[in-house]
Structures are given as structure tokens and as C-alpha cells.
Design goal:
Length: about 350
Amino acid sequence: MNYNNFTIVVCMLLSVFCFGQDSLKTIVAEPGDGILSLLRKQGVDPYEVFDEFVLLNNDNLRDSVHLIAGRTYIMPAVKLDTVAIVDSLQIQSKEIKELESVSYDIFGEKHKNVIEKSERLKGTIYYLVSGHGGPDPGAMGIYAGKAIAEDEYAYDITLRLAKELLSHGAKVYIIIQDPNDGIRDDFILEIDHDEVAYLDKTIPLNQVARLKQRVEIVNDLYKSNKGNYQRLIVTHVDSRSEGQNIDVFFYHHEHSKNGKRLAQSIHKTFEAKYKKYQPNRSYSGTFEDRTSLYLVKKTHPAMTFIEIGNIRNAKDQVRIVDPDNRQALAKWISEGVLLDYESE
């Protein structure tokens, strides 16, 4: 992954300090609004100001990604175009708050900038494997009359998770990569077969060969990083009978104490989120050992294997195809990861 260091000047935060919130433009969220659509309706490029919007409104967002209908939100400032405005800001402030940011091309042009949130995961290493890919799309479903594939959605969630972990200082290896599919904010993710394994390896057609390749890559990296804190997270989208919807659930190796705690920490986070945001609905996801799974059995780092939902079930599809939901899933997983690491 190529990246260059640079800083982002958060003009809106400066405006808050200088002028106070009363002088800022606000907007009331309507039913069905998401952050991206709300910003677009205001004539703003959502990808330029998304992070500023979240920083300004974090206390008024449901899990940092969902708007609440009827709530009032502060709009980020648009790019400063006039000298007069720039001079006004410079006169009224002696400091500009700068946020360190790193660019990762793998996330795509719109999402490549990763702003540092903390160093809570500094010194940790995470290997992220999204299910299937290359010649194998994985489980298939139909949404809005179009075919959708497991590997595309597992990959998108994995990228979002990688970005969250990086923002807290972790070192992240994305084992399955797509050269031209970064994080995508679409409901229908187009199916392709150009994914490769880490360091541009062709993904084999044979299932056992595919799994063996991933195990070898992870174990070789684990060996080269010996002595460091290392964890593995595998993401899949399950396929069961069409009528069966499932909650997110987690597997770990039966003899891995650390893997069990990782799975348990993420599971605990999901339970808390469901209790907070869906109080009338119980969470039935589980964490359990399942050493029969090839990656669970053969990989060396402590790990958890995550099943996001049933791609063939209409209710689960809502969770999977909505980009805001995929972002929430990634954020919840990352919070579980933080809980796990900080309970060491």
C-alpha cells in the first residue's frame, strides 16, 4: 500500500472556535437521510467534508454513522474561496487545528485519507481476510433484481474495518485485495473476478488451494512479525435457506484463549449495540469454537471468523447492501477489537 504523509486543516473546527455554533449553518435530517445524501442535498461534495461532519456532529449521530430524523446537524464549511474569508479566519485565530492523515490507495480515491483518531492500537498487527474472491464469488443472492456476491460485500466491510484499525494506530495487512475496488458507497456492488492475494498472487480456482494459499500468507507474515501482538480477522457473508435471517456471529479455535477473547469481545460489543439501538429486538448472534473451518484450524495468529449475515435473506440484505450499515458493522467490529486489546 502506497501512502504519503500530509495534514488536513479542519476549517470547520476553526470556525467553531472563532464564531461559535450560532453562526454556523445547520440542517435538520429528514427520514431516510444518510450523511452522504444529506451533504449532497446541500450541494457539498460529501467525500471532502465527511470526516469534518462526523467530528462536528459525533454526539448527535447514532453510532457515528447514522443520522437521527428530526435532529439538527452542523454543516461543515465549504472550501474557502475568497481572500476575505481567509483573512477573517487568520485574524480571529492564532492556531489552526491540524489532523494528521495518511493516504492509502487501496481504499479508493474518495476514501483514501485516514485521519488519526488515536494511538490505542499502536504496536498491534492485524491480518484481515475477506471471504472468497478471484474466481470464486462465494454465496450469491438477488437484490432489486440484480445478482449480488458475498466476496464483494465481505471485501467492502473488510476495507472499512482496515481503515478504522489504521486510524487507531494499528498495522494492517489486507490479505485479499482488489486493484480497482476501493470502499464503495453503492447498494449494488458490481461483481468482478480480479481480486488477488497479498503481494499480487493469483487466487487459485480450487477451493483447498485457495484456502491453503491464505493460510501460508498469514502464517509467513506471522512468522516474520514474531514477537509482536498479532491477530487475524476473517469476514464472510453466510448463505443459508432464503427464509432464514441470522445475526452476526463469530467462530474461534477451541484451544485458543486469545482467539476466544477476541471473538467474545466483538460479540459483547454487538450485544451492547443491539441493546442500545434496537431495544425491542434481542440479539441472537453467538461466538463459539469451530476448529473444523480450514482457516480457523490452520492459521497461527489468534483469530476470529465472522459471519455477517445471510446474503439470500431479504432482512439480512438490508444490513449488507446499505453502505451506512456496512460502515456501522466495521465500526462495531473495530470497537470490539479495541475492547479486546485493552482488556489484555
